[in-house]
Amino acid sequence: MTLILALDFGGTKLAAATVEAGSREWLDYENRLSPANADALSDVEIMRSLIDSVLDRCKPDAIGVSFGGPVDAATGLVRLSHHVPGWENIPLKQLLEEEYNAPVSVDNDANVAAVGEHRFGAGQGYDSLFYITISTGVGGGWILNGKPWQGAGGMAGEIGHIVVDPTGPLCLCGKRGCVERLASGPYMAQNARKLLEKEAHNSPTSTRGEILKYLVGNDLDLITGRIVSAAAAHGDELAREVLYKAAWALGVGIGNVANLMNPQRFVLGGGVTKAGDSFWATVRKVAQETALPEVNFEVVRALLGDDAPLWGAVALGFDVVK
After folding, report:
1. Tens digits of residue pLDDT in 74-115
2. Gyration radius of the chain over CA positions
3. Which residues pair with 3 in a beta bridge?
4. With left for phi above 0 and alpha for psi between -120 and 50, is residue 151 left, alpha or beta?
5. Disulfide-capable partner of 179 in 38, 236, 253, 321 (CB 3.0 to 4.6 Å)?
6. Residue 283 carries which DSSP code?
C-alpha cells in the first residue's frame, strides 16, 4: 500500500488527511479552524497535531501540500501568506521532509485545487482548464496541455488581482477594484456593512437590508459572504446588489482570461459559489459578454467542494512517488 498524506494550509482552516494511492476515500481526515491571532508557528503546531492524529503512528510514502499563499513550487519555499503572518520565506518542503522522512511536493492552494479538479473532479477529460477559488480571497490555477502551469515565477493564475473597476474600492494588494476586492467573502461582507451603514444614515425608514440584518440579529460584525448570499436568496435587495457586483466582477475577470488564454473550461470552487442560481447566471452572462463571440468556454461548478486542495495534494503526493 502507498500511503499519501495530504495537507491543506488554508487562510482560515487547516486540514490533514490520509489516503491509499488509487483510492477515492479518506482513510482518516481531520481539520481545525486557524485561531484569529494565528501565525506561522501556531499553524505549524496545529498541523503537526492533525498529522499525528491522521497518521496514527504510520509512516507516509509521500506528502502533498496545498498552501494558501505564493509558493515556489520547484523548491517548496513558501514566500508568504496574505492572511497569516510569519510565513515569509519558510522552506516548508524541507521542514516536512526532515520531520517525516518522505518526499514532499508543495504548491499554492489554487494551483493544487486545479490539479485536484483535473484529476478527480469537474476537469476530468479536459486538456485545458482554469480553476478559480472564491473564499477568503480569489485565486486561480491553470491546467494547460494536461499539466499544471505556474508561470515563470510561480505567480500565474492571479485572477483575484485583475483590475475590473479602476475607480473601485481599495484592495489589500494596494490596487483599486480588483476581482478579489469585489467578489471574495470577507470583502462582500465589508461591502454589505458599508451599504447598510449608508442606508441607515441616508434613509432611516428604508427596508433594504432588513433580511440581512435579521439573519445576524442586527450585529453587523457577524455578516459573512455566505450570509450575504443567503439574504440575497431570500430576496434582500441590498444583499442582491452586493452579490450582483461580485458576480459581475468575476464575470469580467473570466471573460478577459478567456480572451487571453482560451481554456475549454472554467471550474469555480470555494464558499461563494454556493450562492445560488442568479449568481451563476450573472457570472456566465457577463463572462460571455466580456469575451469575444468566437471564444467558446464553459463555466461550471467544482465537484470536489472544499476538498479540492486536499485531493490536489493527494495527486501531488502520488506524482512524487510514481
Report:
1. 899 999 997 889 999 999 999 999 999 999 999 988 899 999
2. 20
3. 20
4. left
5. 253
6. H
Q: What is the model's pLDDT at position 144?
A: 96
Cα dihedral: 285, 286, 291, 294 (round 10):
20
Residue 1's nearest CA partner among 16, 19, 26 is 19
Alpha-carbon distance of 205 to 224, in angstroms, equals 24
Query: What are the two backbone dihedrals, phi and then psi, of residue 152, each rounded to the nearest 5 degrees?
Result: -60, -40
Helix (H) or strand (E) holding 30: strand 28-33
Strand partners, 229: none
Q: Which helix (H) or strand (E) holds 19?
A: strand 13-20
The residues, ordered by sequence, that sit 6+ positions from 29 with a Cβ below 8 Å of its Cβ are 15, 16, 17, 18, 54
* CB contact set of 102 (below 8 Å; sequence gap of 6+): 5, 59, 60, 61, 62, 63, 96
pLDDT band, residue 135 (cuts 50/70/90):
confident
Q: Cα(13)–Cα(3) distance, rounded to whole angstroms?
A: 23
The pLDDT tens digits of the residues spanning 40-60 come to 999 999 999 999 999 999 999
* Amino acid occupying residue 159: I
pLDDT over 80 at 11, yes or no? no
